[in-house]
Amino acid sequence: LPIFTRILTPADYGVWALAQVYAVFVNGIANFGLSIGYERNFFEKKEIKNVAGLLYSTLLFVIVAFMFCGFVTYLFKYPLSRWIIGSSDYADILFWTYCMTGIVGLKTYYLTYFKNTENAKSLVWYTIDESILGVLFSLFMVAYLRIGVIGLVWGQLLASCIIFSALSIRFVRHLPISLDWYALRDSLKLSLPLTPRIFFGVLGNQFDKYMIGLLNTVGGVGVYNIGQKVANVVFTYMTAIQNVFSPQVYKRMFEMGTK
After folding, report:
1. Quick one: how far is CA 2 from the chain centroid?
2. What number of other Cβ atoms are within 10 A of residue 195's Cβ?
3. Largest alpha-carbon pair distance within the chain?
4. Contact criterion met (CB below 8 Å) for 25 and 202
5. Which of 12, 77, 85, 198 has its CA 20 to 30 A from that of 91?
6. Is 146 left (phi over 0), alpha (psi -120 to 50) or beta?
C-alpha cells in the first residue's frame, strides 16, 4: 500500500472504490445468495456424488448469471461509469473491476468446500497464493509498466483467474463432475428470500463511498478507501475466527439432531 500510494493518486483510488461499489452490488445479485445456501446445504449431503452435484450445479448457475450480468455491464459501461463514477472515461475500469470481483466470488465456493471439510491447510494455501500473486502482478503493472490504477484491477484479476483455474483442475480430478438440479433448487429456495439482504449490505458497506463521491470529490473517496484498507486488517482476524466456528455450527445441526 505505501508503494501504490506514492504512484497512484487519491483520485485513482476513488475511481477504483466507486467501481467496486457497482461490482459488489451486481455480483451480489448474480450470486442470488447461493453462498449461504451452498454452505448450509453442504452438510445435508452425505455421499460424495451429492456433494459434487451441489457444488458444480451451484457454480454453473452462478457462472451463467455472472456472464449475463457481465454482458449487460459491457453494453452499458459508458453510461454506468458516468452515473457511478462521474465520467465515462472510467468505463473500462468499471467493467474489469466487475470481472475481477466476479472471479473472486466464484472462487469462494471452492474455499467454502475446504472450510466445511475443515481443510484449513488448503484454504490458507490458496488464499495466500492469490494475495501474493495479486500484489506481484499489480506491482509489475503499476510500478514498472506505469499503466495506472487499472493495473491494480488487472493484477488481481490475473491472480484470481490463475487460482480459480488451479482450484477447478484440482476439484475435477478429485471430485468427479456431477450436476444435481434438485440440490440447486433447494439452495435457491433458501437463498432467494435472502437476496434483498444484498441491497442492504451494499447500502451499509458501499453506499458511503458513493455518497462521498456525490458530496465531495473522487479524491475524497480515495482517501476514505485507503483508510478502510488499513482498518480492515482487524476484519481479517474476525473472519478467521468465523471460518472456524461456522462449519461446526452446521455440522452439529445436521449430525447431532435434537442435541
Report:
1. 24
2. 15
3. 60
4. yes
5. 198
6. left
| Alpha carbon distance 236, 162 (integer Å) | 23
As a whole number of angstroms, the distance between CA 59 and CA 142 comes to: 32
Q: Nearest-CA neighbor of 88 among 164, 17, 29, 15? A: 15
Whether residue 41 contacts residue 254, with contact meaning beta carbons closer than 8 Å, is answered with no
| Interatomic CA distance for residues 116 and 17, integer angstroms | 31
Nearest-angstrom CA–CA distance, 255 and 202: 35
One-letter amino acid of 195: T
- What span, in angstroms and rounded, lies between the C-alpha atoms of 237 and 249? 19
* Distance from C-alpha of 211 to C-alpha of 217, rounded to nearest angstrom: 10
Non-local (6+) Cβ contacts of 210 within 8 A are: 18, 21, 84
What phi-psi label fits residue 148: left (phi over 0), alpha (psi between -120 and 50 degrees) or beta?
left
Q: What is the pLDDT of residues 219-258, one digit of tens each?
A: 787 788 888 888 888 887 788 788 788 888 888 888 887 7
Over residues 3-17, the pLDDT tens digits come to 888 888 888 888 888
Residues 6+ apart with CB under 8 A from 77: 91, 92, 94, 95
